[in-house]
Amino acid sequence: MTSQLDTLLNVLRTTTVAGVSLSTILQGAAIAIIGSFAISKLSGKKRTVDAAKKPRDTVLLYQFYTSDKAKVQLSPPCLKLEAYLRVNKVPYKDCRVHSPAGSPKKTAPYVEYNDMGMADSTLIIDWLEKNGVVSPMDAHLTPVEKAQVEAFRYLFEEGLYWQMLHSRWQHDPNWAFVRNLFFFKVPGIFKYILAFLVRRGQVKALKTQKIGRHTFEETLIFSGKVIQAASDLLGDKKYMLSNTRMCSLDMIAFANLSNVLYLDLPDSRMQQQVAAKKNLVDYCDRMMAEIFPNGYGR
């Protein structure tokens, strides 16, 4: 029996498909099956509020669970949207999910509002304003200021956001810390399997986006430029474009900068880039106190 098992194992190791050993393929399949089972158990078949219990004219905000060890929501898009809803005094219900499986785009945040369901924080905000749920937050801005909002939105959401993800998911010195922080609610071995699968997907996305093809040291060069630009734009003002009134850029800037500043990773060099800019530190602390006066999640 032992010799037969040894023979089988040897066949699995030596047989290849497209240059990959059969044993490796089977191991990958096993991990994928177990991972899918874990995700299905955690996400459930339905991650929405029952129709009979849905409040009318209230945004149902679906966003990721956040560890008590985190000072803010660890997803900048989720934090951006929740901050927007709070600043604009939009009634909302905070719904937490393990997985965005119920999202129209399989991403978080996503929302339901009466009979509307939508994903992507920017598209959600646009919809709320165009449909009269919220008065346009940037209506008071000049055309040049609106151009600044759009340019810096892109700089934060397509620049610093991905650079921050690199520091969390691809940079090995930070991985064990990130795994325990993000998957704290996942029991037993499922935590490690699910973390492995999610990390693999994140690294693939980072490489597709191209920032993942750089070393972390190179990524720090890019993040340093974004952070310097944000500091220069803010200057000594209270908000990004004004001393008196927030605009949508403040939701974006706060969500992304605070996610770098308030998370103490083992390799904290990106965090230190923000911490070195006193005006950005004061800005994040000020925004936090205004939007979440009792602390995030309270």
Automatic annotation (TrEMBL):
<keyword id="KW-0812">Transmembrane</keyword>
<comment type="similarity">
    <text>Belongs to the FAX family.</text>
</comment>
<dbReference type="InterPro" id="IPR040079">
    <property type="entry name" value="Glutathione_S-Trfase"/>
</dbReference>
<dbReference type="InterPro" id="IPR026928">
    <property type="entry name" value="FAX/IsoI-like"/>
</dbReference>
<dbReference type="InterPro" id="IPR033468">
    <property type="entry name" value="Metaxin_GST"/>
</dbReference>
<dbReference type="Pfam" id="PF17172">
    <property type="entry name" value="GST_N_4"/>
</dbReference>
<dbReference type="Pfam" id="PF17171">
    <property type="entry name" value="GST_C_6"/>
</dbReference>
<feature type="domain" description="Metaxin glutathione S-transferase">
    <location>
        <begin position="226"/>
        <end position="287"/>
    </location>
</feature>
<dbReference type="InterPro" id="IPR050931">
    <property type="entry name" value="Mito_Protein_Transport_Metaxin"/>
</dbReference>
<keyword id="KW-1133">Transmembrane helix</keyword>
<dbReference type="GO" id="GO:0005737">
    <property type="term" value="C:cytoplasm"/>
</dbReference>
<protein>
    <recommendedName>
        <fullName>Thioredoxin-like fold domain-containing protein</fullName>
    </recommendedName>
</protein>
<dbReference type="InterPro" id="IPR036249">
    <property type="entry name" value="Thioredoxin-like_sf"/>
</dbReference>
<feature type="domain" description="Thioredoxin-like fold">
    <location>
        <begin position="76"/>
        <end position="173"/>
    </location>
</feature>
<keyword id="KW-0472">Membrane</keyword>
<dbReference type="InterPro" id="IPR012336">
    <property type="entry name" value="Thioredoxin-like_fold"/>
</dbReference>
<feature type="transmembrane region" description="Helical">
    <location>
        <begin position="20"/>
        <end position="39"/>
    </location>
</feature>
